[in-house]
Amino acid sequence: MANCNKLFLDFNQNLNVLSTKKTKLSTSKKELRRKITDHFKEHHPDYKPKFFTQGSQKLGTVIRIHDDTCDLDDGVYFLCKPDVTATTLQRWVYEAVKDHTSEPAQWRKKCIRVTYKADYHIDLPVYYMLEDEDHPHLAVKNEGWEDSDPKEFITWFRKQRDAKGQLVRLVKYLKSWCDWCAHKMPSGLCMTVLAERNFVANGRDDCALRALLKAIRSDLKREWKCTMPTTPQDDLLSKYSDELKRNFFDALDEFIEDADEAVDDEKNQLSASKLWRHHLGSRFPDGLDEDVDAKEAKLRASAVLINSGRAATTAAVGITTHGHGVPNQSHRFDGGRRFHPLARQGKDWFAVFHREKQLVERHYPAFRCQLKRNALSCRGEVSSPGGEGTYRIKIDYAPGRPPKVFVLNPGIEYRHHALTHFYPADNSLCLYYPGDLAWSDKHHLYDKTIPWLAEWLVFYELYQITGRWEGPAVEHYQHS
Fold first, then answer.
1. Residues noted as catalytic
2. Which residue ranges make up each domain of the chain?
3. For 117-176, how does the pLDDT look when each residue is reduced to its tens digit (9 = 90+)?
4. Do residues 52 and 151 lie in contact, with contact meaning Cβ atoms separated by under 8 Å?
5. Engineered SS bond to 378: which of 192, 221, 369, 415, CB 3.0-4.6 Å?
6. Beta strands 375-383; 367-372: pairing state
7. Closest CA to 28 of 51, 59, 58
8. CATH number 3.30.460.90 is the correct assignment for the domain at 5-154
9. Where's the Type II CBASS E2 protein domain (predicted)?
10. Which residues are within 8 A (CB) of 428 and not within 5 positions of it... i.e. 6 or more apart?
11. pTM recorded for the entire structure
């Protein structure tokens, strides 16, 4: 069963709206708010609009859909009882923004839509609410007012979220699946509700998604219904035709069948990833063309030794048990933002570096060290702890600075320093927490730096499979 958890975590990041587009969305939202406010001040001064961003932006479940567009919902609220119809109030908002972009605004049933060059759009639902009422009223074109409370839904969903953010990620995966399907699928709101009421946390997103798909199928087979948990508590599936219902179950059954194969049968991660890509779209990353389960088992055997304090480092810079190499010393990995000067300055740095050169080369023949310009540079090749290729390593040790360790080749993933433990300033590895150890010229590369490098490679390769750092580490805020 090829572990694809890391691929799903990367997919989650790939679904995020790019920062440049987020900035444009924020700017456009402010411009629209200003335009609507000015319009009402001039033409309808008794109506003073207030605004509230709602929908998937507030829930954290917004995604880039397959054509790279996205949307934002910005509610327009009036805190008074209108003396005009819901359609008239909608029209006033429409008149304020109808020519705001080169593409004319759309006056839809429950909102005004402003489109920005097929890049994104902003929906403007219109509400009124009185102080003594519990819920706002949504304007519906040619029909009147209906109870609707986006704020209540946001509050509800935030209470349901798990601490690790898995529910939010699963909602994004479901929305991407619906977007990738060739036929009409349930709305993002509907999939959000279905995800919450059928969600069971799992240590792996691929396993959690498969379980969720099966639970949704059982849920909707019992009763084809998805009731909003908040106002107006309507059935989000009530208007689906029998044909649309059949199409949904056909797509769901096909997805479950491939998910079963990916999780239960497929050992090659690349083959498993192609099964997931078929349903989730081209933003789902390709996996490794190897048996990642066997690799993970090998890495976990080393991780157990490390985490139990029974690890030692071999002459080839691999992990073994005590008594067969240099004993690994206790430490915690870190992901610092800046370097830390030595706590104790050495009086004769040439002697320090000469000593370190001899110790490194005596214990690790794979490394060759050079003394140059009052500094030490060590280079060597280290076999992958998972059994795939080698890493070219460089260690630089300069006066008044802790040693710096770099992976020169192959390229490694420098995306989140808090997750993979490196210094983002120069991508050197952060192998210990300076708060635990004040490095001095009395410390050695051979029994600290290099054994900790061997450990880092084990946990880095595990991270590439699982998306989690499973070694001793200082806690940092992590992305979801």
1. 71, 73, 123
2. 5-154, 163-280, 307-466
3. 878 999 999 999 999 999 999 999 999 999 999 999 999 999 999 999 999 999 999 999
4. yes
5. 369
6. antiparallel
7. 51
8. yes
9. 357-476
10. 404, 405, 406, 422
11. 0.87
